[in-house]
Amino acid sequence: MSTMQEVLVTSDAAGQQWNSSIWDPVAGTSLLTFKGSTSAPHTLSILNNEYILGALPTKSVIQVWSLQKTDNTQMQIVCPGRVTSLTTTPDGNYCIAAVSENIHIWQVCTGHLLTVLSRHYQQIKCIKCTDDGTCFVTAGDDNLVIAWNLAKVLADCGNPSHQVEPDHVWSHHSLPVTDLFIGSGGNRARVVSSSLDQTCKMYDLVSGDLLCNLVFDVSITSVTMDTAEYRLFAGGSNGVIHCIDMFEMPVQKERHIEKESEDITCFEGHKKQVTCLCVSINGGKLISGSDDCNVKIWDVFSGQCTKTLDHKGMLTNVFLIPTPPALLDLNTPRNCIIKPFQRHLYIPGEQTDESDGTVTMMFNHSEKMESVVDYMSDVSSYLSQITEISDPEEELAKCKEEIAMLKSANHKLFQFAAKGILHQEEQIT
Question: Spans of the WD repeats (predicted)?
Fold first, then answer.
């Protein structure tokens, strides 16, 4: 396990065995699983190589798990609405999530909602960040692909009247955009989008120019490229994956891709549409996920399927990441702090209530739960002792002290106990 350069992360729509799982892509074995419902498509993300985030498909909740095997803590963060796409910046400082057609950006360490962007007019399906975190790109059902500069977006945070303009708005697609890929190079990278209009389009993030238009004979549901950006892989709604050589001569701005062409390699094996694609660091292996409930690992050069990972439902998220240190060393210290995400826009200089509109629940955290139970036992004991009252005024003062302390705790269980004391206070008076 110590020799693994990268690991595979998958999630399916069934959620019978796990919400998401981490695999060894070479051996095809499961290394770590995370329980709890399912994660919606394009909402599974790794935060700072320490946590994994996934949004529920039917509720406005983001689930957070630790990547360390010894820590079984699960956090649930309530959002302003159902999250349709999610990503985090490479440095782990910001979480960018789409709630319907709006883009929300939170600061992870404080939970502050820094800004809400409104430029799309239909549901956003995909958000991707550049490798240096300076820019991000969004796309959705309104056929638009929009590029944003993160520094420009956050420069005037807390001012709801100020509308930030994106760097580029690409409207070349005629049907909903299904997937995005951003190459290496930071804000000088190239962006590739796939759409149901049977095309993949490549843009230059600096100039905003349309560099290439690939036309297929089938709707394209996923797209990716290798690390060198030498090959482009496009997964179709018919289960076929097309491999296109981007340096094919002569260079053409618009290319019509046909399955029977000699210069096109096709990976055939999926029975239903391909929903997820990713390529290994060395460019030798292609991993695909499909609605046929299978993840297939392909050898890029031979076009052969070397392994098939069976799942119980349609694949919603499949991607490769460099092996997190937390998987190799259980004593790896944590550098990332996650706070509950606020639902109201953060305004600098104003006091905000961290718990306003946001509920965070910790499961299987034995120490905290034991302290809550012990305190509740003390409260119950106190309530039973004051049934025989010798000095009503003194007992009433004690009740008020307990109420003030319980209210300040701001915990549901404590609030329930406070209601019981209030009831007892009414009996005393």
Answer: 117-150, 267-308
